[in-house]
Amino acid sequence: METRKVQVTGGSTYTVSLPKEWATANDVSAGSVVEFHSEEDLLLLSPRRENDRVEGTLDISGLEEDHELTRAVMTMYVSGFDVITLETARISAEQRRVIRDAVQGLVGLEVIEETSDRVVLQDLLDSSELSVHNAITRMQLVSLTMLEDAIDALIADDDDLAEDVKQRDEDVDRLWYMVSRVFRTVLRNPTAATDIGFPRETVFDYQSSARQLERIADHATKIADLSQEIDAISEETAEKLQELQREAVVVPETAMEALFSDDSDEAVELANEARGKIRAVDDLAREVDKQVREADPQSAQVLGLVVDSLSRTADYGGNIGESALQKAAPRP
């Protein structure tokens, strides 16, 4: 860490010198324009760039499996690259198909150029056009609705509804990748935090909570898969599973209220309320598990996994509550 002494020039102007090594490394010299970004008691400085778009190039020659190429595209996107060039000696038709499929699962990303040896992707959305708040609100709605529908599909032995639940997981994943991208962009570029209207700490809390909602959606998908492995279950078990589902989702619902609250006292109260409900959900889960073994012994193993997923939903809600507590805590 280097220190500089603030001086006053002209009687009213405060000046401070820049470290030479930093200036040289960032091409800052006499006449250069720099930007200041104020965050409460912090003042961040960055050089002004003519082109703020971050470009990245990836050699995909060794990515032979579809999932490897898909993951590479998603990683470059989440890492915050605005222009992504995928290149190899010759891009196959199969690789083009995988790339296009991956692009469809990412918000704002489009194919802008294709040649025999490269595909260029570009994020066409401005960070100022992206609402992290709206994204995780949508994630909450979709993931918790998926969970309810997955239990309904299990009870009604409705394979069509189960398939619909699994398809909706793609919507949650798309929003999760977008929130993660915004988070990494804000870490890299202080201007982005100003554009989206949230401090970087708040974006971190939102990103952490979005991760929990994405996990809830994954467990809803898991329940939908399990529902297709068993036939009818007893009425007693069905009622208990519905009760557990209702109690479990209260935790993330209450925790999300805390996360979005602008009143720190209210946020703390709601977050503690959410976390306090977890033990009751765990107790109910054990009761339901016992009910399953007695009433549906042939399906007990599969239904035990369903009970576990519902219990984990409450745990993920508790993690959101923890993020809400951190967001509401006084700043040091």
The main sheet orders its strands as 5-6-8-7
Summarize the amount of helix as a percent range.
55-70%
Number of helical elements: 11
Radius of gyration: 25 Å
Mean pLDDT: 90
Largest sheet: 4 strands, mixed
- Beta percentage is 5-15%
What would you note in describing this structure?
With 332 residues, the chain is of the alpha+beta class. Helices cover 62% and strands 12% of the residues. It has a 4-stranded mixed sheet, covered by helices on one side. Strands 1-2 form a two-stranded antiparallel ribbon. A two-stranded antiparallel ribbon has the order 3-4. Strand 1 and strand 2 form a beta hairpin. The longest helix has 30 residues, at 159-188. It starts with 6 loop residues before the first strand and ends with a helix. The model has no long low-confidence stretch (mean pLDDT 90).
